[in-house]
Amino acid sequence: MQRTEHQALTDRMRLTLDEEQLTNCMRCGFCQTACPTFLETGLEAASPRGRIALMKAVVDGIMEPDESFQAQMDLCLGCRACEPACPSDVKYGQLIEQTREAIAQEKKYSMPVKLARKTFLEGLFPHQGRMKFMGKALKFYQKSGLQKLARSTGAMKMFPEHLQQLEKALPEVSGDGLMDLWRKAGFPVRAEKSSSGAKLLIIPAVGETIARVGMFRGCIMDVMFAETNVNTVRLLRQAGFEVAVPDAQVCCGALHAHSGEMEDAKNLASKNISAFQEAGVDYIASNAGGCGALLKEYDHLMKEDQNPSIRNAAVTFAGQVKDISELLQGIGRPLLHKEQDPKTAAVKVTYQDSCHLRNVMRVQGQPRELMQGIPGVQLCELQGSEVCCGSAGIYNMTQPEMSTDLLDHKMENVEQTGAETIVTSNPGCLLQMKWGIERAGTGEHVRAVHLVDLLSESVILDDKMGL
Amino acid sequence: MLEQHIREQMNAVVGDKWFKDDQESLVSYSYDATPLYQSMPDAVIFPGSTQEVSDIVKICAAHSIPIVGRGAGSNLCGGTVPLKGGVVLVMTRMNKLLEIDSENLTATFQAGLNTKQFHMTVERTGLFYPPDPSSMIICTMGGNIALGAGGLRGLKYGTTKDYVLGLEAVMPDGSILRTGGKLVKDVAGYDLTRLLVGSGGTLAIITEATVKLIPKPVYRRAMVAMYDDLEAAAKTVSNIIANHMFPCTLEFMDQPTLQVVEDFAKIGLPVEAKAMLAIEQDGTVEDVERDLKKIEEICMASGAVQMRVASSPEEGAKVMEARRSALAALSRLRPTTILEDATVPRSKIAEMVGEVQRIAAKHQVQICTFGHAGDGNLHPTAMTDARNPEEIHRVEQAFAEIFEAAIAMGGTITGEHGVGNVKAPYLEWKVGAAGMDMMKRIKEAIDPQGIMNPGKMFAETRKRIVVQEPKLTGV
């Protein structure tokens, strides 16, 4: 970037940054012990207080938003652990997104980065059909022997080491989404029309219906972890919820918002808001902390929308969003578990908080309570479970060094617990845990699973009821 | 920016990784937790050893470059803002706990050690280090010593200055000084340890310290007393002390403080009360229960409307932790929060609370008051907006009057935050012309070049608002 571009970015930041929030930071520093990048580096600039001071310095004209400034903003994981730690209630998440938005608008990205951003953020995530196609392609890659070939011939070695390891951690995908798998399993479902005539699939509750829950299937979730989506719906209906799956739903837009592409995020949000409003749901279920957190903040995202009915609908939508663990622990009927042979030793599990589930949705008790309710499972608290694992959206691809430092520390702490199972509540964290196991070479005795999958191994499910 | 040959010399001492003078580093070490102050250094250095500190100080001395020692940058007196540029020495890499000596009941550590971590490690051995500044989750022991930090337990246990037994420090010429030791008694010469504690980096850079530890109390319990009026709460504090009771913590919060703290911590504080006292006692189970009962009686007799005793140590800890967040939580009310630490003899607490209210009303500024009432240390906190110079001016006027009132009661301008540059204009009000003269002569003898944290401790004395002594000496 040239000097004039720095000036343009400065001007842009003066427009986009919330001055109140910048002033509200009183620099007490209480955020620092919660910040993973500060804990790793010990550098003031790599802490929330430091980053806010840098943003303010740009707005105040004390410094130029040069490359190192932008790199520092990129180094933030966006885990938002600083927000619950902040006694002044500074909305750091908003400040970092506003800064990234300004950078995204002014920055001339290098060709490969531009291409990657365009491919994933515009071309892929928003389109469920294309995501499924990618899933099929991935399945072909994994099943056709191409993967074996790529690994054995060393073709994978052309990629940076962290991408090679990530590739190994990818789960086996079927290419089928939630509803494909649901139908193939022969579970009950009926088609309805939403109030606007869009396609809506309804899965009946087991027993008496408590409420209607809209299932947010997610874009990556529905390709990489479609089985987890299936299990989520099985558990929801078992707990007494009628589940509605609006076909018109799209990607939540979180990866767009975190990369500064706010307009794209808003477009996706308004589609989702309509889709679920028309489905007449009482709650909206998310099984991915990263998606749930943005869904929960749709009211903030849409607060400047021209259309008042969209703004109101966004507020309603945000209020309806619940993590699956909130719905199962406290709102739904208690789940019954299969009997456990009392002679078998308890399985040790440990839990890695999803940052956005904990820090934005503020859910940390329910997942733990659900695990403690499983017979024969012993929950061993992970030291530093509140510290980000380094996955953070696409962070592990863009910031491999910091990401692996965090991950390796995380795996040392996992080792300490003696757990055989690492449980998470977000696909990004789950992939990262699998990658961590790969890196630590503990795959023989440690596995990583989504909370929902762990639960459905033990809960009594009346899958055929309602056919 | 330092001259290239100086940069190279410094680089050679600490290595490329730990010498920084890029824009981002300079900005991010230009401030601390003190509102309204910011000034850019010329370089930021992270030394890894006492020898490295000494080598850097020698280079600075040779070229008359200012040196500012810094821990976590959580102080509230502008103590680590590099007002005259120069080098900021960030001590956080030197963070090792070197020894817990359970035979002599001492601990020795490097200056950059985090206070909370130190507490936790010490307590795991069954020992106890009482000074607990509210910023302990981030601050460093070296910073605590440099500014003479206090905390919630000052009443019963004293503050940092009562625990430091020995120091290692780098003097302005780069020489390495060692004072004191693992000694309960030591009167060999001038007490240089005490001189350096609270000197705020104006005499030396503290690199290592030995502090005394005490046995950890086996039991602790907290309770809160609620009041319909502020004066009754303040009066209770004096009554508790006058009855020879020494709770380990005796904290005061007025209603606005209560409301914001509850808003942040959500632990069921009585937001409808006009004032609250949070009281904690530690010791043996019998002693604690007996003392709390007695204190409860004193509270009720002094006008408390309701008492609530914590059902478990955890519940009590939550109240105290919430209290620690008071300052930052108050900042939710207005963009800028300016906190002071005027301190009076404990018998004057009620009088002082009344004065603060009167002065706030007079200058039409919003001032909330909380603090370590048991040791006479109040934190009148002004909620304001740095973008409004007229209002900031009124806040300054109000604080000047609060300091004046405190001194008139036999109190001081700062109980535990240190002088830094924020209190420097008021220092003479407290110590007088003779006191200033003596302090300046000490400073000149130790740091003749004036390179150690320049701009702190000594500043032009502010004109007194209420002239109590006829002489008005400018500096």
UniProtKB/TrEMBL annotation, chain A:
It is an enzyme of class 1 (oxidoreductase). It comes from the Bacteria. Gene3D superfamilies: Alpha-helical ferredoxin (1.10.1060.10). It holds the Pfam family Fer4_8. The keyword Iron applies. Residues 13-44, 67-98 form the 4Fe-4S ferredoxin-type domain. This is Glycolate oxidase iron-sulfur subunit. It comes from Paenibacillus lemnae.
UniProtKB/TrEMBL annotation, chain B:
Residues 37-216 form the FAD-binding PCMH-type domain. It comes from the Bacteria. Its cofactor is FAD. Keywords: FAD, Flavoprotein, Oxidoreductase. InterPro entries: FAD-bd_oxidored_4_C, FAD-bd_PCMH, FAD-bd_PCMH-like_sf, FAD-bd_PCMH_sub2, FAD-linked_Oxase-like_C, FAD-linked_OxidoTrans_Type4, Oxid_FAD_bind_N, Vanillyl_alc_oxidase_C-sub2. PROSITE patterns: FAD_PCMH. SUPFAM superfamilies: FAD-binding/transporter-associated domain-like (SSF56176), FAD-linked oxidases, C-terminal domain (SSF55103). GO terms for molecular function: FAD binding; oxidoreductase activity. Belongs to the FAD-binding oxidoreductase/transferase type 4 family. This is FAD-binding protein.
